[in-house]
Amino acid sequence: MHIAEARERPSSLIDRLLEIWEGSVKAAHLFLSEQGIEAIKPYVPQALRTVPHLVVAENAHGCPAAFMGAAGRKLEMLFVSTEERGKGLGKRLLEYGIEAYSIRELAVNEQNPLARGFYERMGFQVYQRTGQDEQGNPYPLLYMRRDG
Q: Is the distance from CB of 37 to CB of 22 less than 8 angstroms?
């Protein structure tokens, strides 16, 4: 498994990461309808192109299998392909982000208890809750931070 920041972001990489995003969202964001996912999907490539630090984990065949994005000390996104879920790749990516970018904060959908539990096991604690997401949709967010 190789983990590194994507210095270049060609369309082929963005397309593969979008596939990972979609599969991961369908597997873990059970509160979202198919229409909800389709409504969000057009914004993902722009986020992938503009997040300051885009880190990609490749599988043994050199293909992207997971990714995370960071800005400042905040985790902006972390998605693992359905084939790699449960194998520790998310943990390795987040540990990389904590070490390389001093990640200390993130937001997670309250309706995604698996993700919340993962971040709690990684040392993050909820410090704030909102009744909706940043786009005003009825998906409560939990803001979490990790000490030092």
A: yes
Q: Is the pLDDT of residue 148 over 80?
A: no
DSSP string for residues in 86-148:
TTTHHHHHHHHHHHHH---EEEEETT-HHHHHHHHHTT-EEEEEESS-TTS-S--EEEEE---
Q: How far apart are CA 65 and CA 89, in angstroms?
A: 9
Q: What is the pLDDT of residue 133?
A: 83
Alpha-carbon dihedral 125, 64, 97, 130, rounded to 10 degrees = -30
- Kindly state the tokens that stand for 8: 């270049």
Place 39 in a pLDDT band, splitting at 50, 70 and 90. confident
Mean pLDDT of the chain: 93
